[in-house]
Amino acid sequence: MMACAGDTRTASELAVRALWDEYLASKRGQFAAHAGTPSPLWNAAEQARWPMYDLAGFYLPDHAVPEVVSITRVNAAVDTAYQIVTRFWPPSATPRDSSSKPVLTMTVYACRDRTRWELVNALSFKTSRWVRESRGRIAYRVAPSLRFDESTALRAATFVDSLAAAFELPPPDTIESSSKRVWTTGAVLAEMVHESGGVGAVSEYLRTPGSPHAMRTGLERILHRPWPTIVTEWRRYVSRIAAH
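Now predict its structure.
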């Protein structure tokens, strides 16, 4: 990306924008299918930690149109991290078209790692300094304004093991949770699966391998719907929850 005459952006801003553009282009319009595809542009620790490291990208419809809204330095005094906000529009829409709505607004961060920039999830960046607690299989990150509830955490740990036993599945090694808000992504998908096919469908869903392609194919099979329809319904569920 070349700077034009009168362009007031810094070299770092231009480098971050080029990094994000390169990452988006690497998906070739298949954002969900490639949400877990290894990338040299994304933080390696996050890729090792999450099979689908691009947490928001997994819920983008194919060929969504990105519109970069802002690239902002996190700390004006230190040139080490930038926030990138991007709206994604339906494939047939023109950005800012009043007749359509963005399908998703995504925030990611670019952080400097020695001499290079790399992308990280907003979740990791925002919670990096939060207090960490672990009870059973659940690892918590607790916002500074909140108090860690020991008894609730212990009950949740017991519930995880009992749920795995009920579905005759091996319990997960670790579940990450944030004590700032309810992370509804997986819960909403599980509710959609349960409504469609009951406990048997949930059991099948939980046994699905963790790769993005396998998850997507499995959900299409269980819900008997194409992926774009599943994503649209998922957004409706989340919107209803957020409204309450």
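The CA atoms of residues 200 and 228 lie 24 Å apart.
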